[in-house]
């Protein structure tokens, strides 16, 4: 009778756990300690870890509820989960709001106001205070989603500032190691489960401490509340299959035909921009007939299954340029593109030879490829240790981005239209446009000025379109206009090559200035400098502006220095993170960054790689749905995969830090669908995302979006509070997904599920998605 409350994830799931045991071989048997059989208290039980950022000793775990793993039951995953769960419980107990507890301010970071000038909320406030109505920031979008959202953000900020430095945020790695030694000394006598799921170690001391600190009995109110929550979260879900014109390729925010039909103009590609439905769909996208497991990387770079992306139009139009060809049951990619018919690698080396300072994979690590086609350029840049964020509009060339993703190459559906791209200012080392068909020179260079916004000072714009080398009148005229525009923008033409003998194209490379001297000396202030109030990082639904932001010159300001060379930059604390700034988890920003980095290395190495039953060699396209500093992605560096880091628009704006590390990502609001094709990703990771999202959006729609983005047999790893985990487990079971693992401790849980090929029989027609 020493246990003081019930943890919901265990409740009525005994039979489900039993089923899982019967289904899967080589699984871990649950261990229930006699002291803790019913779970642990939800208050006051974690004094030892009050200052902890999630870096607890690896063996400080004892499971209340372990469901099987489809592996040999590597125990460290369970240990890692407990470490974090402990910490989260502490944060909830220390008086933070439910939203922060669910959000796990420790591990995930959205509860904090972040660094003063980098939190997206702050940029929104600045923008709404200082700018005219034509440059609205994200706050407008958020208001549309929920009137109470701003209030929630403010309470998040204030409570995290109040609690930031003393509750749940400060324990150092050294302290964790101390605990490790102390606890392992004590544990051998006390452990009751030698040789079972957990190795003997710190768990016994932890358990004893938990029970003594939880000496009071649970209240009837708490028991009843838990039971009611459990019942509501274990309700039955029934799914339908979406009927839309796009069929298996449906992207809700890009296939909203009702909105597209009512656009006043399509002159600026408005019809290719995002137009999200007010209510996102809650149905499941059908599979193409004959779909099979994708070919693994690196073979996928050369060929994919035709039936997975059954589109031949692009092969007919672009086959002569070696984009894509139909070869039996495969679509094959000879590695070419419009400007490099004879292979991307030769073209990549030709660029570096023309400007050696580009130094692929050292100085230049993260690039933006505009109008990417099937993304062969980005696909072959992996051979040079370069990450390319490739984008192209949906349907301009049938399924080009879908081909890229199926090949295992990062790409998103986007267009240079009327709004800023969803990236911070000054983050890309290089922007590349081969024959991207963007009219850079028109309307005062508005689109080129958007590239200027996202390009680092000292970064390069590499352009190999026909105006660089063809002498027909139209091209000559465009080159002259570009030469004038780039000069007015203070871009230096570093080199304009003669035609390359192999691909028969030339390349012009421009460099963005690293000081403001040229801007000040211009005889005409055209294009103008942006007003001081214009935040270059505000990028969510913000209209394009025909102006340039000043180059940062203060040494402590981001963009004033070039990052360290790759790979050193991955683990290096950004120079512009100051100790005077409070990080996402409440510590001084540099310490916060380092603690997060160590924490995710530990979780990934000890747990995800070995403890989940995941065959990582079949994982290529990964998304961290709620990245903070990019620690999860950084910890996966040695694997042959890439990670799309998503920073949600209502969390601290840490995306510039992710880019500084030589990783990439984008802003997104999970109340809307992501700009990617169905079946794009092999693995999705959601660390305390769903508990936050469900406060302002329909969690059923978010689960349907996860199903849409994930490939059949793909995995979803969720870390969240138990109530949310239980709710999600019910939803995914109703989709016939396989539950690979569930784990809970102190109202915190972990879920690993695998998507199946199942699709519902019942159909739901999406009226706005019918062309």
Automatic annotation (TrEMBL):
<dbReference type="Pfam" id="PF03141">
    <property type="entry name" value="Methyltransf_29"/>
</dbReference>
<keyword id="KW-0489">Methyltransferase</keyword>
<keyword id="KW-0808">Transferase</keyword>
<dbReference type="InterPro" id="IPR004159">
    <property type="entry name" value="Put_SAM_MeTrfase"/>
</dbReference>
<feature type="compositionally biased region" description="Basic and acidic residues">
    <location>
        <begin position="124"/>
        <end position="157"/>
    </location>
</feature>
<feature type="compositionally biased region" description="Basic and acidic residues">
    <location>
        <begin position="17"/>
        <end position="26"/>
    </location>
</feature>
<feature type="compositionally biased region" description="Polar residues">
    <location>
        <begin position="201"/>
        <end position="223"/>
    </location>
</feature>
<dbReference type="GO" id="GO:0008168">
    <property type="term" value="F:methyltransferase activity"/>
</dbReference>
<dbReference type="GO" id="GO:0005768">
    <property type="term" value="C:endosome"/>
</dbReference>
<feature type="compositionally biased region" description="Basic and acidic residues">
    <location>
        <begin position="83"/>
        <end position="107"/>
    </location>
</feature>
<keyword id="KW-0735">Signal-anchor</keyword>
<feature type="compositionally biased region" description="Basic and acidic residues">
    <location>
        <begin position="164"/>
        <end position="195"/>
    </location>
</feature>
<comment type="similarity">
    <text>Belongs to the methyltransferase superfamily.</text>
</comment>
<keyword id="KW-0325">Glycoprotein</keyword>
<dbReference type="GO" id="GO:0032259">
    <property type="term" value="P:methylation"/>
</dbReference>
<dbReference type="GO" id="GO:0005802">
    <property type="term" value="C:trans-Golgi network"/>
</dbReference>
<keyword id="KW-0812">Transmembrane</keyword>
<protein>
    <submittedName>
        <fullName>S-adenosyl-L-methionine-dependent methyltransferase protein</fullName>
    </submittedName>
</protein>
<dbReference type="InterPro" id="IPR029063">
    <property type="entry name" value="SAM-dependent_MTases_sf"/>
</dbReference>
<keyword id="KW-0472">Membrane</keyword>
<feature type="region of interest" description="Disordered">
    <location>
        <begin position="1"/>
        <end position="237"/>
    </location>
</feature>
<keyword id="KW-1133">Transmembrane helix</keyword>
């Amino acid at each position: 009778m020493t246990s003081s409350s019930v943890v919901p994830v265990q409740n009525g799931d005994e039979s489900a756990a039993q089923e899982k045991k019967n289904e899967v071989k080589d699984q871990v048997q649950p261990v229930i300690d006699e002291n803790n059989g019913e779970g642990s208290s939800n208050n006051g039980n974690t004094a030892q870890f009050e200052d902890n950022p999630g870096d607890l000793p690896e063996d400080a775990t004892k499971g209340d509820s372990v469901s099987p793993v489809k592996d040999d039951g590597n125990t460290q995953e369970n240990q890692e989960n407990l470490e974090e769960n402990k910490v989260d419980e502490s944060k909830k107990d220390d008086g933070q709001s439910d939203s922060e507890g669910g959000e796990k301010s420790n591990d995930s970071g959205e509860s904090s106001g972040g660094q003063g000038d980098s939190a997206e909320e702050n940029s929104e406030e600045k923008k709404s205070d200082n700018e005219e109505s034509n440059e609205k920031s994200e706050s407008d979008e958020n208001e549309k989603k929920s009137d109470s959202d701003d209030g929630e953000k403010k309470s998040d900020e204030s409570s995290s500032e109040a609690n930031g430095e003393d509750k749940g945020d400060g324990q150092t790695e050294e302290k964790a190691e101390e605990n490790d030694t102390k606890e392992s000394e004590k544990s051998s006598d006390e452990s009751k489960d030698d040789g079972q799921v957990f190795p003997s170690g710190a768990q016994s001391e932890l358990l004893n401490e938990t029970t003594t600190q939880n000496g009071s009995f649970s209240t009837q109110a708490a028991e009843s509340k838990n039971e009611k929550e459990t019942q509501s979260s274990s309700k039955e879900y029934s799914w339908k299959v979406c009927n839309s014109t796009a069929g298996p390729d449906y992207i809700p925010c890009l296939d909203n035909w009702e909105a597209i039909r009512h656009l006043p103009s399509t002159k600026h590609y408005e019809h290719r921009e995002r137009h999200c439905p007010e209510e996102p769909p809650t149905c499941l996208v059908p599979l193409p007939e004959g779909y099979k497991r994708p070919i693994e990387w690196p073979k996928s770079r050369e060929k994919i299954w035709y039936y997975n992306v059954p589109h031949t139009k692009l092969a007919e139009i672009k086959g002569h340029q070696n984009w894509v060809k139909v070869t039996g049951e495969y679509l094959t990619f000879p590695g070419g593109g419009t400007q490099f018919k004879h292979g991307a690698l030769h073209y990549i080396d030709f660029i570096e030879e023309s400007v050696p300072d580009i130094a692929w994979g050292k100085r230049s690590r993260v690039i933006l490829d505009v109008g990417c086609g099937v993304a062969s350029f980005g696909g072959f840049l992996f051979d040079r240790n370069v990450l390319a964020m490739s984008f192209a509009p949906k349907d301009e060339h049938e399924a080009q981005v879908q081909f890229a993703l199926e090949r295992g190459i990062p790409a998103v559906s986007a267009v240079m239209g009327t709004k800023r791209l969803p990236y911070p200012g000054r983050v890309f080392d290089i922007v590349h446009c081969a024959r991207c068909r963007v009219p850079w020179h028109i309307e005062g260079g508005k689109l080129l000025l958007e590239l200027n916004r996202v390009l680092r000072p000292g970064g390069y714009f590499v352009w190999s379109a026909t105006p660089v080398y063809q002498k027909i009148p139209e091209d000559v005229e465009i080159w002259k206009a570009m030469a004038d525009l780039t000069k007015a923008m203070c871009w230096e033409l570093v080199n304009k090559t003669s035609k390359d003998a192999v691909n028969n194209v030339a390349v012009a490379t421009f460099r963005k200035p690293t000081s403001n001297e040229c801007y000040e000396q211009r005889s005409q202030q055209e294009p103008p400098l942006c007003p001081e109030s214009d935040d270059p990082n505000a990028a969510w639904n913000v209209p394009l502006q025909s102006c340039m932001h000043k180059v940062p010159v203060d040494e402590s300001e981001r963009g004033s220095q070039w990052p360290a060379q790759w790979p050193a930059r991955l683990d290096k604390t950004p120079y512009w993170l100051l100790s005077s700034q409070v990080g996402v988890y409440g510590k001084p920003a540099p310490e916060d960054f380092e603690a997060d980095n160590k924490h995710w290395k530990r979780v990934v190495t000890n747990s995800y790689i070995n403890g989940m039953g995941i065959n990582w060699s079949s994982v290529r396209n990964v998304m961290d749905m709620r990245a903070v500093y990019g620690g999860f992605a950084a910890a996966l560096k040695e694997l042959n995969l890439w990670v799309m880091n998503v920073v949600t628009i209502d969390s601290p704006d840490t995306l510039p830090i992710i880019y500084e590390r030589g990783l990439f990502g984008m802003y997104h609001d999970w109340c809307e669908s992501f700009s990617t094709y169905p079946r794009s990703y092999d693995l999705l990771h959601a660390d305390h995302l769903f508990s936050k999202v469900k406060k302002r959006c329909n969690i059923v729609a978010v689960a349907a979006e996860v199903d849409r983005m994930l490939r059949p047999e793909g995995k979803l790893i969720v870390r969240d509070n138990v109530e949310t985990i239980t709710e999600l487990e019910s939803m995914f079971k109703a989709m016939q997904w396989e539950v690979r693992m569930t784990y809970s401790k102190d109202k915190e849980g972990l879920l690993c599920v695998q998507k199946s090929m199942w699709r519902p029989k019942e159909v739901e027609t999406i009226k706005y998605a019918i062309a």
